[in-house]
Amino acid sequence: MSDSAPSPAPAAAASAAPAPTEAAAAAPAATPEQAPEAYVDPLPHCGGFEEYSREAMRIFPMAELFDGARLELKKPINMAPQFVTSHTVVMGQTTGGGAEDGSEQYMFGASYVSQDGSMALISKMDTMGILRAHIIKQWSPAFVSKIQGRVSSTPGETVLNIDLDHKGDDYAAQFKLVNDQALFFNYMQKVTPELAFGAQLDYYRARMHSIISIAARYATMNWVATAKANSDNALTVNYMHKVNDSFSMATQLDFNANSRDSSFKVGYEYLLQSGKFRGQVDSAGKIGMCVQESLIFGIMLQLCGIVDHKKQVFKFGIGLTIGG
């Protein structure tokens, strides 16, 4: 009898075993509020309407290429390190915001960033008397205002832009005024962690003309696909693919149904140990390449090349940035 006495104990233990299993199975269901946290990504993954295809645009270098030589010296003020002055000498042509094409000039710049990073003041003036200024103020984590101005003695070349940006948890809205002659309002809404849609209304006062644009964006960890169409029958499609941590490629297709014109370009970016190499080729036969390399003591070297096979134009640029 003593040998059979312990047998009921395992049976009782077996009958009691399902209880903790059922409790463990019910545990995840008791906290359903955790699911939305994994579903909603922060807004920077979506961004605003103007930057809906920022990953692809970052790869194409053509807007930053220049011909000739450029030297820029940046120096912070010792007594106020948030205040930085710059001296820039440009010789040759440029395609991205600097000297006018074919000019040789000097530009003086000054910038100030508050200690908390909520305000930035940036300005540049060149020897042609053109003043460019930017004022950026972050009033709250969700609201930012921007004022961009270009003052010139030439009639019709003075420009003033005012931007008001608002960012929510899963959306972004922007209002822009350009010289009281053009109004822009856009809105971008995230639908899923990968998918976002947006729309923009452009109104031009002088022509009494308005344009409506819609955009879609689908982003994953390794690739981003975007498309934008407007009421003027223009379509733009972008695709960016991250091959690995160092190499990425991007494509863009533009099509206008009214004129039956289309264009296509392919770009690539390769990250170096202390720099990057970017290039692009388009359907018009134009090739552009740019190498940026960080040297010692805060020196940045930039080499640019532009080849236009159709026009038989060949350009080369070298730039050096010291400090900053």
TrEMBL record:
Check the record and name the InterPro entries matching this protein: Porin_dom_sf (IPR023614), Porin_Euk/Tom40 (IPR027246), Tom40 (IPR037930)
What are the GO cellular component annotations?
mitochondrial outer membrane
- Localization (cell): Mitochondrion outer membrane
Region Disordered, residue ranges:
1-42
**Can you supply a Gene Ontology BP term from the record?**
protein import into mitochondrial matrix
Q: Which Gene3D superfamilies does UniProt cross-reference here? A: Porin
Pfam name, any one: Porin_3
Q: Name one GO molecular function term.
A: protein transmembrane transporter activity
Q: Which CDD domains match?
A: Porin3_Tom40
Q: State the source organism's domain of life.
A: Eukaryota
Regions of biased composition (Low complexity) lie at 1-38
Q: Which UniProt keywords apply?
A: Membrane, Mitochondrion, Mitochondrion outer membrane, Protein transport, Transmembrane, Transmembrane beta strand, Transport
**Membrane topology, as annotated:** Multi-pass membrane protein
Entry similarity comment: Belongs to the Tom40 family.
The record, for PANTHER family, names: MITOCHONDRIAL IMPORT RECEPTOR SUBUNIT TOM40
Can you name this protein? Outer membrane translocase Tom40
The species this protein belongs to is Thecamonas trahens ATCC 50062
